[in-house]
Amino acid sequence: MEIKLGKGVFKIEKSSKLIGLKQHKTRGVEAMPKEQTTTKLEKLGGFKVLEIDEDVEDVNEKLDTIREDADVEIGTHVYHIEGSDRPLVPTGEILIIFHHNVDEEEQTLVFDEYYLELVERRGKDRVIVKVTSKSPNPIKTAGLLTNFSLVRAAEPDLDTLVDHYALSAVQDSLFEQEWHLENKGYIPGDNYPIKAGADAKVIDAWKRLGNRGSSDITIAIVDNGFDLNHPDISNNITKPFDFWTNSSRFSADGFGFSHGTPCAGVALGRVNGTGMVGAAPNSKFMPLSGTSFGWRATENIFNHCIKNGADIISCSWGTTDASFALNSMKEAAITKAATEGRNGLGSVVLFAVGNDDLDYVSYYSVHPDVIAVAASTSRDEHAFYSNRGAEVTICAPSNGDWPIIAPKASWDTGHWFDGRSRSSQHKHFGGTSSATPLVAGICALMLSANPKLTAKQVKEVLIKTADKIGRASDYDTRGHSVKYGYGRVNADKAVAEAIRMRDKTGVNKPVVEERVQTGQGLFEFSVKRQKSEGYGVQIGVFAEYGNVLIQAEKLEKKFQKPIIVNINELNGKTIYRICVGKFQSWNEANLQRIMMKQQGINGFVKNLSNLK
């Protein structure tokens, strides 16, 4: 059948061999059925994923049999998008978007029709529900809901594996080394020339700060496979959480993953006399285990970061599969962290662009509030695997020539690039997986220098202070490259700019953007208070008055309709809603909306009586 997923509609089919089981909470994992099954994944969408043995011909019949087991609370089919082998597990929750003006009583009719339980409301038109024992399965229910006249869209919450952006060991290039902090043109102990100065200038930043960062700054590493006993990352841990076990208890073997340990080390490996050192070794470490594609899980991850004081959120994972583009729920979760974290200054969110050698980046790193990190090499060249695209913010040193040193989980089988073992607790590492936490550590140094920087300002400073590498022709007129972003990160320059902004009067005032500046000038106003009645086409909500002037002038000239501006307060800040036209009926306003959309301007019909 076809389902809505993210920004597209895709055909999905049941897996012929995989099933998902959820045990009763009072029973242990060992109680789960083992006959004719093999465990494939310990946790996905709250379910243990099992593979049915080859001699079982009918997955439906086998699942029905297992569901009768006293130890099994819920059994579910596992799905695949047509043409893909990536497993999809329905969590049981569904996002329903109702048509305009469907009231709560009418919405209840929909819930009752399919025996759905209301989980929470996300506005007048959006609700999250979950299926019950009387409901059809979540996939089928979502399909039925889309045919209901009151429902505009329904999307089941599906969990799947995201890609961890470190190159595989067989490519001999997924490792990292300490030259990325300060590159002197050679690898100590190895007869291998690299390019002097092709580094992130971290040592220089430490010298400028007079320290290696502040313990008041917290870096959240969202990943899987943390060895919290490793000496490089074992201290100064705060608010750890495993979203697979739903507790602060981490699996002793990381559920078979080991990726989080080296990522954490690159960002904040401790100064302890042994091992390696991260970019911001004095920072607090918030390990968050359980990367997930599901929108509910994504919300849980970022809400945990907001609630527990994560200043920086580093994510070395994502997907370039178009089937799994971010939906509005996940986009909103990232936006919320980037704007509401750090008591309104915004948590700094970083995502790796991916290691697929593609001309587009991970769908997570496309988000406008994200710092999208690509990889460069020890020779200041583009790392061949690093994805390219207009959304790349910045690049940072990683492998592709000579890799980087990182801590290794005790169960990790990772090895050394050149075959010369330097430590049983470390390995070579690389990919955009290591570039991303390196930039995260540098962001921690910036916030150590100036803790009042907003997340937006941190991104702007990184862009402003980056070093242009590669050829001049790689960059457009804005100074942006699809390979390098705005250049290779320079920790020293970034920290220097953070200090300058701290010491300058009015330093932390919002940066005035070019589009706001163009709103300056002489304007003729005709202000008339409007009655709260009728309908208009709302195009957005603005926080900058200059933007209101620009949009109002443009829209009035283009559509020859009155421009209605609603001025209000939200969380102590003044906001402006701009609506085009004032119509007596919803249908009239909708015709205006359609005409505007045909001319490239998106909006929605707004009942002006709701604007006071």
Q: How would you describe the overall organization of this protein?
A:
The chain is α+β, with helices and mostly antiparallel strands. The chain has three domains: 1-159, no CATH class; 163-503, Peptidase S8/S53 domain (Rossmann fold, 3-Layer(aba) Sandwich); 517-610, 2-Layer Sandwich (Alpha-Beta Plaits), CATH 3.30.70.1070. It has 13 helices and 26 strands. The protein has helices at 59-67, 104-113, 138-146, 202-209, 260-268, 295-307, 328-340, 432-449, 455-465, 491-503, 514-517, 545-559, 586-598; strands at 2-5, 8-23, 37-44, 47-52, 72-81, 89-98, 117-121, 126-130, 151-159, 163-164, 186-187, 190-193, 218-223, 241-242, 284-289, 312-315, 317-318, 348-352, 370-376, 394-397, 404-407, 426-429, 535-542, 563-570, 573-583, 604-607. It has a seven-stranded parallel sheet with strand order 14-15-13-16-18-19-20, sandwiched between helices. Strands 1, 2, 3, 4 and 5 form a five-stranded antiparallel sheet that branches. It has a four-stranded antiparallel sheet with strand order 7-8-6-9, sandwiched between helices. Helix 8 packs parallel to helix 10 (491-503). The longest helix is centred in the C-terminal third of the chain and has 18 residues, at 432-449. 48% of the residues are buried.
